[in-house]
């Protein structure tokens, strides 16, 4: 018999039916979808104010962040298209106002806001963001004074980065026309709203990349006045870096006198207004002409004074010089002496030449001349006799003949005659006879032996 203390009734395998609990069970996915529809329907358009935390932009182009205040946190997402069109770059710690719709993310059982628009929450937040970016860029040396370049005194070509339809470009052109007409190149850009910063940066880089024939000597980045939100494009990092990297001197003329942007710090010179930028860019042509005329007058006066002082010094030096007659007297006397010596020298020279002429004339008298002619004739006769004695044709009168080859060369030996073959014989009467030597002819006399005399 079982112990009643340990008598346990078996558990029921089927739960007892509870009154009123006859609804079908809902799946988790169905509940998530129902919550999603309820949340999106109830909060299809909301504006939230909070501080950005954990902002990051992923490779797909979407951005994720959290908005928080003192008591709560909500996740947020910005799709690629909206993230690219933001007027500023979100940063952690910046207070913003976002516009979007609430939705749920079933995969994590949480709700989030899909942000369609984001703006800074007041001037304080904007200034905080501005100061933070300014400190970062200043730490890189982009605002250093040693980076500033002097402006050209009289630029031949000025580039202007601004809106082509606003009053700014008209003010700049009119001011330049009034002061000093200059060639102006306008690069039209948006100066406010989505994409404005990218267009301004691209324009600055574009001017810097132009060929030398088109490249401006000076660039003006200009925009009219507006709120800090309106001018925010000129605070963007992309614009600041483009201005700092440009090799052309740049004047920043963004807003009015009290407006300051980071573009002003990166530029070589800040102008309080676009009109003032035009005044800084070029001198007043009328003033320049007056200045040049003044310099010309000063140069003329200086030259005149220099001439007058030189004349005074010359007059003073002239007083120190002795009289002209005293200076030139010795020279005049020496000249007179030289003239007299020249006359005497000419007379002596004429007399000497006349004497030589008389002597030469005496040598040309008839008797002396005849003697000289007879002497020359006798010398000529003697020379003729000498020539007759050495003439080879003189002996032809005694029965001899002169033998030559056909080319006229005189032959003096039998061997030469045999070698020539054809001979010419010259006689007394100046006539010639051609002859031919027989090759078999023997010498008329036997050749003498070296050691025996020849008998004739």
Question: Explain this structure to me?
Answer:
This protein is an alpha/beta fold and 456 residues long. It has four domains: 30-120, Nucleic acid-binding proteins (OB fold (Dihydrolipoamide Acetyltransferase, E2P)); 130-283, Rossmann fold, CATH 3.40.50.261; 285-320; 392-436, no CATH class. Helices cover 43% and strands 19% of the residues. The protein contains twelve helices and 13 strands. It has helices at 28-42, 80-84, 122-139, 167-179, 196-209, 237-245, 262-266, 274-281, 285-320, 324-363, 366-389, 414-420, and strands at 46-57, 63-68, 73-78, 95-105, 110-120, 157-162, 183-188, 218-223, 250-254, 269-270, 402-405, 422-426, 432-436. The strands form three sheets. It has a five-stranded mixed barrel. Strand 2 (63-68) and strand 3 form a beta hairpin. Helix 4 runs parallel beside helix 8. The longest helix is centred in the last third of the chain and has 40 residues, at 324-363. It is elongated, with a radius of gyration of 64 Å. It starts with 27 loop residues before the first helix and ends in a 20-residue tail after the last strand. The relative contact order is 0.06. The model is unreliable at 1-15 and 452-456 (pLDDT under 50).
């Amino acid at each position: 018999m079982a112990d009643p203390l340990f008598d346990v009734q078996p558990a029921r395998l089927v739960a007892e039916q509870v009154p009123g609990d006859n609804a079908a069970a809902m799946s988790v996915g169905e509940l998530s979808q129902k919550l999603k529809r309820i949340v999106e329907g109830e909060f299809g358009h909301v504006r939230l104010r909070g501080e950005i935390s954990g902002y990051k932009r992923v490779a797909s182009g979407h951005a994720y962040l959290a908005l928080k205040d003192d008591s709560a946190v909500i996740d947020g997402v910005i799709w690629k298209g909206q993230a690219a069109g933001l007027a500023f770059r979100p940063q952690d710690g910046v207070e913003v106002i976002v516009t979007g719709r609430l939705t749920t993310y079933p995969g994590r059982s949480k709700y989030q806001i899909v942000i369609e628009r984001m703006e800074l929450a007041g001037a304080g937040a904007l200034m905080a963001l501005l100061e933070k970016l300014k400190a970062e860029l200043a730490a890189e040396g982009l605002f250093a004074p040693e980076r500033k370049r002097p402006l050209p005194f009289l630029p031949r070509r000025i580039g202007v980065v601004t809106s082509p339809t606003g009053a700014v470009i008209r003010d700049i052109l009119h001011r330049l026309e009034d002061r000093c007409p200059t060639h102006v190149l306008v690069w039209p850009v948006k100066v406010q709203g989505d994409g404005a910063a990218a267009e301004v940066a691209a324009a600055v880089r574009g001017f810097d990349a132009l060929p030398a024939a088109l490249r401006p000597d000076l660039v003006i980045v200009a925009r009219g006045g507006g709120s800090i939100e309106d001018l925010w494009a000129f605070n963007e990092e992309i614009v600041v870096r483009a201005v700092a990297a440009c090799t052309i001197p740049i004047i920043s003329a963004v807003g009015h006198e009290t407006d300051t942007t980071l573009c002003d710090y990166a530029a070589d010179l800040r102008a309080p207004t676009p009109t003032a930028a035009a005044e800084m860019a070029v001198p007043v042509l009328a003033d320049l002409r007056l200045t040049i005329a003044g310099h010309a007058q000063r140069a003329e006066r200086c030259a005149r004074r220099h001439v007058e002082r030189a004349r005074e010094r010359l007059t003073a030096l002239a007083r120190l010089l002795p009289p002209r007659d005293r200076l030139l007297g010795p020279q005049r006397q020496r000249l007179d002496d030289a003239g007299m010596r020249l006359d005497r020298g000419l007379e002596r020279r004429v007399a000497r030449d006349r004497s030589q002429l008389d002597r030469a004339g005496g040598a040309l008298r008839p008797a002396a001349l005849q003697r000289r002619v007879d002497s020359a004739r006798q010398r000529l006769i003697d020379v003729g006799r000498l020539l007759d004695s050495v003439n080879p044709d003189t002996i032809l009168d005694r029965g001899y003949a002169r033998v030559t080859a056909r080319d006229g060369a005189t032959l003096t030996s039998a061997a030469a005659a045999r070698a020539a073959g054809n001979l010419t014989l010259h006689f007394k009467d100046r006539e010639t006879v051609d002859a031919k030597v027989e090759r078999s002819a023997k010498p008329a006399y036997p050749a003498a032996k070296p050691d025996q005399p020849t008998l004739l």
